[in-house]
Amino acid sequence: MEALSLSVVLVFLSLVITVFAFRRRSHSDVKLPPGSFGWPIMGETMEFLFGKPENFVGDRMKKYSHEIFKTNILGEKTAVICGPTGNKFLFSNEQKLFTVFRPHPMQKLFRSYKTNAPAPPVQASPTDEVKSIRTPGFFKPEALMRYLAKMDSITQQQLDVHWEGLSEVKVFPLSKTVTLTLACRFFLGIDNPERIARLVGHFDDITLGMHSIILNVPGTIFYRANKAAAAIRKELVNVIKEKKAAMASGAPMQDILSHMIVAADPNGNFMPEAEIADKMMGLIVAGYSTVSTTITFFMKYVGENPDVYNRVLSEQLEISKGKKAGELLDWEDLSKMKYSWNVMCEVMRLVPPLQGTFREALCDFTYAGYTIPKGWKVYWTVSSTNKNPMYFKDPEKFNPSRYEDEEAPPPYTYVPFGGGPRLCPGKEYARLAVLTFIHNVVKRYKWEVLFPDEKIMGDMMPTPEKGLPIRLTRC
């Protein structure tokens, strides 16, 4: 019996050694990108999450390669492809060489409806929320055009409620309330201030938890995010039930939630309420955090640059001259906000609302002379170009004029919304939201930033430590 047991152990060890040797040989047959996988298990996740993104990327570009380097973040072997050439390569090969990948914290937070099902594939399914909204064209200009007046009206109401009559306010809380109100109205078709106010803190926690270490114990970022997701999911299921009842009574279908409720797969099956809730939660997070961050830092940089404020104000007053009293914005007005949009572009360059996204290699492929194996993750990031003096003169300077025709940045150096087939579907929605806010805020107020050196907390969701207090002067 002992001899048999020993034989089994020896056979097992031989198999392990053979597999290990095969893997080593297979890796030695390809030229992997330079770089380091960091510590066992954790890799370089801590540096990625808690170091400044431009430093994490920039330091490794200098040390290893300006084109590509390898790392291990959030439990995945990852190739970071850098620079405008890398951006072009990534955007041109979507669904050919790689597909979208959601980090494991995001899968846990937004895939609760698959808890009792087999483990989901690492790539997004064909019925993910992005596909759900692309098909009916909710984000196409002709659809958004119908929503613009409502967006203008909501923004005015929020300024009336939260800022009117006050001399000192905090920007960040209002920016979150405004953008969450807009997102809930557009995505869910609800317009209930009290209901929305209850959700603001929950969405903040989820945004932070999307890029965090999956440690579901009290006190951790992921624990708070998981609790917040459960609270929002419960509220959304209630909204879905109300929406179904309203639709059964003949209410119009003018929002994304209504479409998801009636959408069926090829077999005629409708989405379960839990799945709809998770998909809607993901959409609202995307439409909330990025827009509120951009609005907040618009107020900071424009408040610190009076010459920029004066040019924005002049442009917006010129638009108002051609409108009757009380008339809301229309699509033609947006085309006249060229300088205002340049200001927003410069804000997004200095404080990116989105640092980057992940892809998964569908097959082995070669880039810059290195092989990225199938199954590896590929990280696209704005940090390799946004503040690079090769592409932006005086990169730390706030200069909206750099986007004018004669100074436009080179192709693929400024890509805050990604590019190619995976270009952010909400780009046009975000443009409308921020330009509508600009139009209303500059016509009402001049402002002074009270703490120009206020500390900015976090990188995945940049947050002014004090909420960006400003002093308002009514125009």
TrEMBL record:
Main location: membrane
One Pfam family from the record: p450
A GO BP entry: sterol metabolic process
Protein location: Membrane
Family matches, as SUPFAM superfamilies: Cytochrome P450
Gene Ontology, cellular component aspect: membrane
Family, as annotated: Belongs to the cytochrome P450 family.
Protein's recorded name: Cytochrome P450
Originating species: Rhododendron simsii
